[in-house]
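Hey team,

Sharing the Quinone oxidoreductase run so nobody has to redo it. Sequence (324 residues) first:
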Amino acid sequence: MTNAIRFHKTGGPDVLVWEEINVGKPGPGEARIRQTAVGLNFLDIYNRSGLYPVQLPSGLGSEGAGVIEELGEGVTDLKVGDRVAYGSSPLGAYSEARLIPAAQLLKLPDEIDDKTAAAMMLKGLTAQYLIRQTYRVKAGETILLHAAAGGVGLILSQWAKHLGVTVIGTVSSDDKAQLAKAHGCAHSIVYTREDFVARVSEITGGKKVPVVYDSVGKDTFLKSLDCLAPLGYAVLFGQSSGSVDPLNLGLLAQKGSLFVTRPTLFTYAAKRESLVAMANELFDVVKSGAVKIEVNQTYPLKEAARAHADLAARKTTGSTVLLV
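Structure output:
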């Protein structure tokens, strides 16, 4: 018997139900994996709530780790018994076992355990494309990162510092400010009591920053534009406070010929060779110790609803893992 968290209607955490599923055998190009750990992400809340529509009923989750139990035809670069992880799969990670396209699986190095892998794949691959591709940060630059104490934030801050970048991070509390500073932020701004636009200008001597990484959305986006130097990049990769209102593109001219982009991991990792290259770079910085992955909360998979409620209430820091 295999169980999974599913939802038959959109809504709050209470729509998540624990139910029996039939996984079946892998088809051509597929793998069946027995899951050990599943990553929790704001993306899961967007799917569950209906912000990002899905076909119902649906599974949930795009990030996890486990062991290959069976392979379908045509899979040649993996074998049964391999420890694997993934960060950009079709929905269905909240399950004891699942089928998944083998092209989305990454064989784990011995140095990285399953719980760490489940905590870092989606968030770590996101950090990779943000600072190595969307806007490739350079040593000596100063950047602004919102939600610096979140899962992506803690990884991105460490990685950017490793690359010689000064990170200004915004957070919601003094405790989170300390956490962000311990993970690479040179400056922490508690946005609940400080004007982050004024503080960024002060920290940079009025020069502002070449890029803002914003996963908060509605509450921060327009002010993020005011933090950018001319020709700067506003990189919106989430919307934890709600969707950004329609943007008058004339504002981009007025504020310094700015660029705005809304990237997703699914686009950057769409090709197998791109995904593997991104993952190898992530694995390297984790194995070297330059980026430390800290799982600050764990929940049994059956208690996914409680984990969702805590994440939405900003009670969590860093990475959260659901254990199978």
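The chain has two domains: 2-121+271-323, 139-262.

Ping me if you want the raw files.
A.
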